[in-house]
Amino acid sequence: MNRPGTATGVNFFTGDLGAKRLGLLCTLVPSARVVGLLLNPAFGMEAFDEFRRSVGSAAQSLDREVIVQSATTDVEIEAGFAALTKAGVSALMVQNDPFFDSRRSKIIALSSTHKLPGIFHIREFPADGGLMSYGASLADAYRQVGVYAGKILRGAKPVDLPVLRPTKFELVINMRAAKALTLTVPPAILIEANELIE
User: Fold this and answer.
1) So where are the chain's domains?
2) What's residue 7's pLDDT?
3) Measured between alpha carbons, how far is 81 from 148 in angstroms, rounded to an integer?
């Protein structure tokens, strides 16, 4: 099932997106009192710190504990999952990061092995077997790039064009993954979802 994505008042650049993801994850997995946060400090410490602060603040308001685990290599990803599981984490958030994107299959497999329901930033994760994602629509971003390219080809100067921000956000849920994790997707999530992968 697909529904068009829309901007939902989320400020993509202030870390509010992390808070929104945590809220969605806690709605779907209410029993998750301790949530793991997988971050990559190599992506940039400013982004690392901002995302951690945003999620930490949201966790306090939701009466949840967040355990942060850093990973910059494949070995550290595997060790990070083991450490989070040992710490009693029962749900997972993964930072939007190109390195983690390139290790999508590994992260999804580890999530499944450790039975950690996770939320990610792009639909490719749930499309490949992860539980859910919430973030900017890549299809819409590619469309915006095409519009920009068209303007430049028609003579516009790149310096005169405004910087674009994501305007379309989408919530995608893999219903098979939810069933495998014995999770019942609540109506509030079903109503908000833009796509349900059966």
Assistant:
1) 16-137+169-197
2) 40
3) 40
